[in-house]
Amino acid sequence: MKAQFADYKEKVLQSFNHQGLAHTLGIEVEDFGPGWFHTKMIPSQQILQHHNYVHAGALASMADLSSGFAAYSLMSEKEEVLTVEFKINLLRPAVGEMILCRAKVLKPGKRIYVSESEVFTVNEGIKKLAAKATVTLLVVDMD
Amino acid sequence: MKAQFADYKEKVLQSFNHQGLAHTLGIEVEDFGPGWFHTKMIPSQQILQHHNYVHAGALASMADLSSGFAAYSLMSEKEEVLTVEFKINLLRPAVGEMILCRAKVLKPGKRIYVSESEVFTVNEGIKKLAAKATVTLLVVDMD
Amino acid sequence: MKAQFADYKEKVLQSFNHQGLAHTLGIEVEDFGPGWFHTKMIPSQQILQHHNYVHAGALASMADLSSGFAAYSLMSEKEEVLTVEFKINLLRPAVGEMILCRAKVLKPGKRIYVSESEVFTVNEGIKKLAAKATVTLLVVDMD
Amino acid sequence: MKAQFADYKEKVLQSFNHQGLAHTLGIEVEDFGPGWFHTKMIPSQQILQHHNYVHAGALASMADLSSGFAAYSLMSEKEEVLTVEFKINLLRPAVGEMILCRAKVLKPGKRIYVSESEVFTVNEGIKKLAAKATVTLLVVDMD
């Protein structure tokens, strides 16, 4: 997969920096390229549930954001993407020093993009798959 | 649907009060009973995306929490529920003075509960369906 | 919801009659109108699994078809719909003299329609919810 | 992943041979092992929709069956699995001489298994991803 213009990284980062929810939850960009987007999050009390696991909603937010930006990295200068729907399976309790998300575009299309996000816990260097999401996105023209 | 013990409301509220993510996102209990759970959220800059719509992840968190507590209200004193997976469709931009979520149990089971959440925007008293989620939950014994 | 032209029923039925899978599985139209579509299926050995329940795949086919036609009933003469994705929860074993499916459009859009299908078993006149599906559809121009 | 007893292949094949829907749709076992299951299907008029694409419901049936058997291969002699829910994204029109499905267990659990199915079209030896499904399964004791 290829980006559609030279400065796509700038456009992507600028948009990410306007995501209030990412800042609220502590989700940061790790790295990205055309069709993929990696994020990280250090769990704080703010996003935990009653067992001190990271709440499903925080993992879902991370998965949706990362998959959306994986698709966004392939848009032209005048296009953006909207999440149509997503589905996430929670595979194990998300307890960890760090949460990583690896998103990639599974299928680009004319109007519909489908991305996948894998969410991992990291403890003492050991990465475990904690959640997996499939995200359907619609390409729209920017206003 | 019927609660399994007299003081179930106390147990439910106590657990909700331990949901760090709910507090972070500003999700509050509106009302609940056996098999249903209603929440509300006043959108703040913290949960908006770049168009000032409420971010899909915040709606998903609200939908997951509300559906989970709808099922939790039917558990015995020693049981709780874990989200196995959920799927959410974003139906229109979530712009509003207030966001409401109406969750109910669609099917109780021995081990698996399925709940649904409808998320509405409210503007000048007009309620519009903004998202709908289906949530699959597993009944587990509390430690 | 309103049909876009007078003879929409003819167009809908003509398309349904070309669905090879519907005939293979024994899915028949019961009734329909603008934005809704009802189907029925009498379980035969052909669609059962090893416990003599109707197989999830047959219920999913019925749910997808019915939701798709609920949206199709709202298209113009030159448009049709494609299933982008669907999700189905199997709520109880599908054992019955008859299987019914009730589909309706949850949200029409410019390019994306979202429909829901409820699948019921019928035994001695008693209807029980056996499955529920959410279906995302894309509006496309006919060739 | 490891099978729980020596003769698991016999048990798996015996159960597959009782799947009426697989025979109706022409779905055959290609190969399998502990935690994975591959199937194939030659498209016939019976499973096509009006554009002569394989109908979403037939792909969904193939994906559900294959994912279910991937999990079933890991069960003990007295256990089986039930589909709790699945979600499938249709990624491109399924036109082909042959349809292949590659299913594997993503996460085994005590009570819940999650599997994934990738469905491919094959034309003149070229394999293309046509659909992808995530399937949630519940482990139950056989009667």
TrEMBL record, chains A, B, C, D:
Annotated ranges, domain Thioesterase: 51-123
Catalytic activity field: a medium-chain fatty acyl-CoA + H2O = a medium-chain fatty acid + CoA + H(+); a fatty acyl-CoA + H2O = a fatty acid + CoA + H(+); a long-chain fatty acyl-CoA + H2O = a long-chain fatty acid + CoA + H(+)
EC number of the protein: 3.1.2.20
Top-tier EC class: hydrolase
Keywords linked to the UniProt accession: Hydrolase
A Pfam family this chain is assigned to: 4HBT
One Gene Ontology term of the molecular function aspect: fatty acyl-CoA hydrolase activity
InterPro entries, per the entry: HotDog_dom_sf (IPR029069), PAAI_dom (IPR003736), Thioestr_dom (IPR006683)
Gene3D superfamilies, alphabetized: Hotdog Thioesterase
Entry keyword annotation includes Hydrolase: yes
Family: Belongs to the YigI thioesterase family.
PANTHER family for the chain: 1,4-DIHYDROXY-2-NAPHTHOYL-COA THIOESTERASE 1 (PTHR43240), MEDIUM_LONG-CHAIN ACYL-COA THIOESTERASE YIGI (PTHR43240:SF20)
Protein name: Medium/long-chain acyl-CoA thioesterase YigI
Naturally occurring in which organism (per UniProt): Metallumcola ferriviriculae
